[in-house]
Amino acid sequence: MERVFNFAPGPSMLPLDVLETAQKELLCYGSTGMSVMEMSHRSKMYLDIFNDAVEGLRDVMDVPAGYKIMFVQGGASAVFASVAMNLMDGGKADYIDSGNFAHNALVEAQKYGEVVIAGSSRENNYTHIPDYTLSPDAKYVHITTNNTIYGTRWDHIPDTGNVPLVADMSSNILSEVYDVSKFGVIYAGAQKNVAPAGVVILIVREDLMGHELPITPKIMSFKKMADADSMVNTPNCFGIYLAGLNFKWIKKMGGVAALEKINIEKAAMLYDFLDESKLFKGTAVKKDRSRMNVTFVTGDPDMDARFVKEAAAAGLVNLKGHRIVGGMRASIYNAMPVEGVKALVKFMKEFEAHNA
Ligand SMILES: *Cc1c(COP(=O)(O)O)cnc(C)c1O
User: Fold this and answer.
1) What is the spatial distance between Cα 15 and Cα 18, in angstroms, rounded to a whole number?
2) Atom 1 (ligand 1): residue with closest C-alpha?
3) What does the pLDDT read at residue 1?
4) Cα 356 from Cα 353, distance rounded (Å)
5) Model confidence over 213-232: pLDDT tens digits?
6) Hey, is 225 helix, strand or coil?
7) Average per-residue pLDDT for the chain
């Protein structure tokens, strides 16, 4: 059986290189005589793997000193709550409502403090990144750098002055270079661009720890998790191992900057075609187009459904848009090779020739 080009939004494609290494090491990791899945998380053999992953991420993302890297659980959705519990500190927070997950994050935060919606594109069905006005006295500002469902991306990092900037980077972490020093907190569910589901990357500036609400569960306290080196309880050992393999792959590919160049190229191939197509139309406002999730429609839901079905038969799978927006979405994370995007554009051209 041949591997398909999997355009799923998450869980999504992993680099073949990563999967093959994991396969090779599955039964016996190094000279340990056991699988990574069977190791104690407190054992020296596992701690080496864990520390390798932390250092690998610090290296490829250029995370400065003064920031703690953690791997936590509960998905990005759990961090929606923990961000508010750890940072709200009796004050208020600015949230930019740029998509479904951004909205979920602010709804969660409302349970723990005052949320100010500093900007929203909800009325426009989230087809663009909204304008915003920030509160000078906010405890933090929350953004979602890439909106997975709607296919939009922030083309700049807002200047928040002394107010810490918190970013949900679930669907574009490590796909482009970010200056980590501009952020107070960065978090990302691994299942989009890094590893299998069940691991969340959490990077926190150290001075922002230790101010959590008393109700904060121990496993959601940034300070306690940092002090325990992500091991307040048993972490997702195998997922973290795979994340570590991915960081090594990124390094081998030339780093995040090299991948960013390829990602820009891949996205441009699709958008250039969409812009001249007589059948397909991109749904996101041009300026804010995502490089990771390319959303498009034909305008006819029956035709959309037929496209998704015929594409799958041709080995281009999971192109159906999210259930709340319909249409199509091609998720083209780091692991999607240029050939996959080329094959998709070719297929779209043929489909158009037969159906326009
Ligand atoms: C997928 C996604 C989430 C939700 O992640 P879970 O790990 O399922 O909680 C949050 N934010 C963004 C931007 C996402 O793409």
Assistant:
1) 5
2) 170
3) 84
4) 6
5) 999 999 999 999 999 999 99
6) helix
7) 98
Ligand 1, residues at Cβ distance < 6 Å: 10, 75-77, 101, 144, 148, 168, 170-171, 189, 192
Domain of 308 in residue numbering reads as 256-355
CB count in 10 Å sphere of residue 66: 10
What HEC string does 133-186 produce? CCCCCCCEEEEECEECCCCEECCCCCCCCCCCEEEECCCCCCCCCCCHHHCCEE
| pLDDT given for residue 198 in this prediction | 97
Q: What is the pLDDT of residues 177-196, one digit of tens each?
A: 999 999 999 999 999 999 99
22-48 pLDDT, tens digit per residue, is: 999 999 999 999 999 999 999 999 999
Clarify whether residues 237 and 261 are in a common domain. Answer: no
Whether residue 263 is found in the same domain as residue 245:
no
In degrees and rounded to multiples of 5, residue 151 shows phi and psi of 75, 45
Q: 7, 316 in Cβ contact below 8 A?
A: yes
CA of 44 to the centre of ligand 1 (A): 32
**Residue 190 to residue 2: CA distance in whole angstroms:** 25
Let me know: does 307 contact 287? Beta carbons within 8 Å. no
pLDDT in tens, 93-141: 999 999 999 999 999 999 999 999 999 999 999 999 999 999 999 999 9
Indicate whether 353 pLDDT > 90. Answer: yes
Domain presence at residue 1: no
Beta strands in the chain, from DSSP E residues, in sequence order: 5-6, 67-72, 92-97, 114-120, 140-144, 146-147, 152-153, 165-168, 185-189, 200-205, 281-282, 293-297, 316-317, 328-331
Instruction: Tell me the Ramachandran region of residue 268: left when phi exceeds 0, alpha when psi lies from -120 to 50, beta otherwise.
Output: alpha
Which residue from 110, 184, 175 is spatially nearest to 141, judged by alpha carbons? 184
Q: Say if pTM beats, i.e. exceeds, 0.90.
A: yes
How many Cβ atoms sit within 10 Å of the Cβ of residue 23? 9
178 token code pair: 């970010």
**Do 177 and 104 fall into the same domain?**
yes
Query: What average pLDDT score do residues 66-92 get?
Result: 98
User: Which of residues 217, 236, 252 is at a domain's end?
Assistant: 252
Ligand 1: which of 12, 95, 101 to mutate, judged by most atoms within 8 Å of the beta carbon?
A: 101
